[in-house]
Design goal:
Immunoglobulin-like; alpha+beta; 11 helices; globular; six-stranded mixed beta sheet; Copper Amine Oxidase, Chain A, domain 1; about 40% strand; 42 strands; binds zinc ion
């Protein structure tokens, strides 16, 4: 105890020393070196002094900037940084905040929030204006210029939750020998949930809700359910789909506060035994005996086991995380409950992240593996609350997560090894590239509204796997878009654009690459074009062969580009950005893609 106090005093003393002093320093602001000689500023979050290791708050152009990571981590938020896209992702309560260095547009739960000045990279830290923290995020912010201190406090009454719309936060599962239970958990009461039971899937629609589950799939491995998929099905409906291994009977009930909705699946065929070693909480028994001394020492020794683990013979249960190289690279994780694992598939950056859902630092300590093979670039294990395994791959992989003998097996497979029908939807333009501009509208935004509506329909269809070239307002090169589709080995590429010409021109056209050997692109263009004309009633400008468009001539699969309408025509500009129109349009294009896949399979 005495030791603790003296350390604290020492820390306090050091801080006191460094504050007061007016020291000249240089700041590297987005690559430019600038002299800075103002007195240091103290940062308080929720009344606690935060030790800012690299960057204190600074005043630049009369604006106070604070280090985003230190501020939000002090509030218990998860803060992620993607160096490639210069993007900070903050998961705070039920909000996801995305900030991009030097971009004044931030996103809060997908909605744009303008910043008065964009975040800046200063000495390697992303610094953001306190005004954004107060106005966009509802924090109580005080700048005490006399005492050189910034005070940021979270609102006490939870008023950052703007509405009572339930945020669907999690799908928790448990498997027993005779039944499988999936519980959908939300931030506030859900109601009017609809359940549709089919032979191969159970669809659950939660009206008036926001999904925080986008892009997360929880694969489960038992006799009832193969996969759980979730999506924001419409603007206010969350859809959860359980892909079934066998036909089931479903019974449902709400928790007393209606924040949970339970589905209990039992077999329709009467058989009830689960495969052995597959219960949901098999790890609890032998944890304490396994974790004793010496275990961490052996960790590094056999972590890169080459081919030795390939057989997956049921008798071998490793005590540590092991990586197995090969065309289906594999991670084996001991003592992990797969139903708690959340996988984030950041395919555009070739990063798969497993959040193991609990602290496993005793059996899987922090480390970085560099396999140095053709499949995986690095594997980073880090425990911050929960243990996360971040896998940076050299190719685009999807995955299968299974469990046996009390260990989880995360097998990376190429998209084509898992999915029969893959479409890449390319939302045209974005970021600094607005596309065509007219009648107060920017093409990139219309493309986005259309493309994301189409995405939601495709994502909810368990027979189709959809990948997106962008899902935020970012600039991506044409080469990136085509290369992504080629690396995925997609079956179909659909690019979403809108047109511009003189103000009187209107109508829809669909472009395709005129291959001499493969007519499927042309046929799908015709399906899509005819569908839009019939459903949306726009003028038919026909399908058009184009050899000069990069995304059409550089993609290895049938590729089309839809120009739905003309932003340069006043009434059509309003029409193509209208929510009712986009809903019809998306259903039509989705239907044509479903038809198109039948044609592709021939
Ligand atoms: Zn365009």
């Amino acid at each position: 105890m005495r030791k603790k106090i003296s350390i604290m005093l020492l820390v306090g003393y050091l801080i006191c020393q460094s504050r007061g002093m007016l020291q000249a320093q240089t700041l590297n602001i987005d690559g430019q070196v600038v002299a800075y000689s103002q007195a240091p500023i103290e940062l308080y979050v929720n009344q606690k002094l935060i030790q800012t290791t690299v960057m204190d708050p600074v005043v630049i152009d009369n604006r106070v900037l604070v280090p985003s990571r230190e501020v939000f981590e002090a509030m218990g938020a998860k803060v992620g940084w993607d160096n490639a896209t210069k993007k900070v992702t903050i998961e705070y309560k039920n909000q996801t905040i995305i900030l991009i260095v030097n971009d004044p547009k931030a996103f809060i739960n997908g909605k744009v929030a303008e910043m008065d000045v964009p975040g800046k990279n200063i000495n390697g830290k992303v610094m953001i204006p306190i005004r954004f923290v107060s106005e966009a995020m509802g924090m109580n912010v005080k700048w005490d210029s006399a005492n050189r201190s910034v005070w940021i406090d979270e609102p006490v009454d939870g008023s950052t939750e703007v509405t009572q719309t339930p945020n669907v936060q999690n799908v928790v599962t448990s498997a027993k020998s005779t039944q499988f239970v999936a519980s959908i958990v939300a931030s506030s009461a859900m109601k009017d949930i609809q359940v549709f039971t089919q032979t191969d899937k159970v669809i659950i629609d939660i009206p008036n809700s926001k999904s925080l589950l986008n892009r997360t799939i929880a694969p489960v491995s038992n006799m009832y359910v193969a996969n759980i998929r979730t999506s924001q099905f419409t603007a206010d409906t969350t859809r959860v789909v359980l892909d079934l291994n066998t036909p089931v009977n479903v019974s449902t009930n709400y928790s007393s506060d209606c924040k949970s909705f339970h589905l209990t699946l039992t077999s329709k065929n009467g058989s009830s035994a689960l495969p052995e070693g597959d219960t949901s909480n098999g790890s609890s028994n032998n944890d304490s005996s396994n974790n004793g001394s010496g275990n961490t020492g052996s960790e590094s020794g056999d972590s890169n086991t080459g081919e030795s683990n390939n057989g997956t013979s049921s008798g071998t249960t490793s005590q540590t995380m092991t990586y197995t190289a090969g065309s289906k690279p594999k991670l084996t994780l001991p003592g992990i409950t797969t139903s708690k694992v959340k996988v984030t598939d950041d395919y555009r950056n070739k990063i798969l992240t497993l959040d193991l859902g609990a602290d496993y630092s005793k059996t899987i300590p922090n480390k970085v593996l560099k396999p140095n093979d053709a499949y995986v670039d690095s594997i980073t294990v880090e425990t911050k609350g929960t243990t996360k395994v971040k896998i940076v791959t050299n190719k685009i992989y999807t995955y299968n997560l299974t469990s046996s003998n009390n260990q989880a097996v995360f097998e990376m497979v190429r998209p084509k090894e898992k999915y029969r029908q893959i479409v890449v939807v390319d939302i045209g333009h974005g970021g600094s590239d607005s596309g065509a501009v007219g009648n107060g509208l920017r093409e990139k935004e219309i493309n986005f509204n259309q493309g994301m509506a189409l995405y939601r329909l495709l994502e909810a269809d368990s027979n189709i796997k959809v990948y997106m070239t962008r899902e935020t307002d970012v600039y991506e090169t044409l080469k990136f878009r085509a290369t992504l589709a080629n690396e995925i080995e997609a079956d179909l590429f659909v690019s979403i654009h809108n047109n511009s010409a003189s103000s009187t021109v209107t109508g829809t056209e669909t472009l395709y690459y005129p291959s001499t050997t493969d007519k499927r692109g042309e046929k799908i263009a015709k399906l899509v074009q005819d569908g839009i004309i019939k459903t949306c009633g726009t003028k038919d400008r026909g399908i058009k062969p184009r050899t000069d468009l990069f995304v059409l001539n550089s993609t290895n699969m049938p590729a089309i580009l839809i120009e739905t309408g003309f932003i340069s025509n006043a009434s059509e500009a309003q029409l193509i950005n209208n929510a009712v129109f986009i809903d019809k349009w998306a259903k039509s294009v989705y239907g044509s893609i479903v038809e198109g896949f039948k044609l592709l399979q021939r």
